[in-house]
Amino acid sequence: MSDWYPMMYKIAGRKCVVVGGGTVAGRKAAGLLEAQASVYVISPKLSPELRDLADAGKVRWLEKEAEDSDLDDAVLVFAATDDPEANRRLAEAAGSRAIPANLADDGDKGDFIVPAVLRRGGLVLTASTSGAGPALASRIVSELAERYGPEYNENVEVLRTIRSIVKSEVSDPAERRAMLQVAVTDEALHEFRSASWLKDMDKPELIARLRQRVNDRKG
Ligand SMILES: C[C@@]1(CC(=O)O)c2cc3[nH]c(cc4nc(cc5[nH]c(cc(n2)[C@H]1CCC(=O)O)[C@@](C)(CC(=O)O)[C@@H]5CCC(=O)O)C(CC(=O)O)=C4CCC(=O)O)c(CCC(=O)O)c3CC(=O)O
Ligand SMILES: NC(=O)C1=CN([C@@H]2O[C@H](COP(=O)(O)OP(=O)(O)OC[C@H]3O[C@@H](n4cnc5c(N)ncnc54)[C@H](O)[C@@H]3O)[C@@H](O)[C@H]2O)C=CC1
Asked: How many whole angstroms from 104 Cα to the centroid of ligand 1?
């Protein structure tokens, strides 16, 4: 059983506060940057990785111990210090501002936990063990990285194009659905990825090929 609800949250340009300057804070900050968040790191000290990010202007560093008011206007808070009492107090301060908080030392006491993540452009694969064993989530994502290689960066964009054409050209919902189902096999994605007619946006050609695939499947 797990009572965590998975979702994709839009955080580009929004203030996210990471408290702590160690390995865990660094990992949380890096994940937030992947989603273009506006990242504030609060800690008297920084790991070399975080210092590089601060020097490059990718995160804003407040060189001090965290105060409750540092959380003002944030949409997410990550309490990732090595001081459980400070983490607990920060989560409470976040709660009183209605900001969801993540507790690095005691996941269950926070409002959300962070899964292991593999990004292939728009394809985002995640695994979580609900806190039972994060190393397993990490292992599973490493396995997914082999199965879903870098070609998926392009597959997702090709699919986006195919889907927008199908949505504009095919009015029957059942037919649309059948076409989009046959379009996502590895074999079909491989064909469409290298198709010059798709690059030329030849819509009738695409629709004809998808109809053919639907008929072949019905066999
Ligand atoms: C509850 C949660 C809260 C949260 O951080 O959101 C949490 C909590 C804790 N982690 C601890 C330890 C480790 N965490 C990792 C790794 C990751 N931890 C991540 C998430 C989460 N960790 C959330 C649950 C997610 C889930 O279960 O699905 C990942 C997936 C994502 C990320 O952090 O970005 C990232 C992998 C990223 C990747 O590789 O892709 C490793 C593995 C390693 O280091 O090799 C170890 C050592 C092995 C071990 O202890 O299992 C400890 C004990 C600390 C201590 O002993 O003091 C606690 C505290 C506690 O037990 O509650
Ligand atoms: N969630 C996860 O994935 C994991 C969580 N942990 C937990 O997370 C904690 C942090 O782990 P690490 O990053 O490895 O620790 P670390 O010891 O490398 O870093 C702790 C950081 O917190 C800063 N800090 C301490 N008190 C502070 C305060 N009041 N305000 C702001 N910053 C403060 C320190 O300056 C330091 O930079 C561990 O103590 C452990 O309980 C550990 C491993 C994985």
From this structure: 8
* Residue found by looking up tokens 């994060």 in the block: 134
How does pLDDT run across 50-70, given as a tens digit for each residue? 999 999 999 999 999 999 999
Is the CB of residue 122 less than 8 Å from the CB of residue 146? no
Distances (CA, A) of 4 to 7, 10, 139, 173: 10, 18, 20, 33
Do residues 119 and 152 lie in contact, with contact meaning Cβ atoms separated by under 8 Å? no
Residue 5 included in any domain: no
What does the pLDDT look like over 134-187, one tens digit per residue? Answer: 999 999 999 999 999 999 999 999 999 999 999 999 999 999 999 999 999 999
Structural domain harbouring 26: 15-113
Q: Please, are residues 102 and 71 in contact by the beta-carbon 8 Å criterion?
A: no
Nearest CA to ligand 1 atom 16: 134
Q: From ligand 2's centre to the CA of 27, what distance in Å?
A: 11
Q: ipTM above 0.90?
A: yes
Quote the number of domains for the chain: 3
24 lines ligand 2 (CB under 6 A): yes
6 falls within a domain: no
Verify that 91 and 106 share a domain, yes or no: yes
Give a yes or no: residue 108 inside a domain.
yes
Q: H helices within 17-150, ranges in order?
A: 23-34, 48-55, 84-96, 134-147
Measured from the alpha carbon of residue 100, the closest ligand is 1
pTM reported for the whole predicted model: 0.96
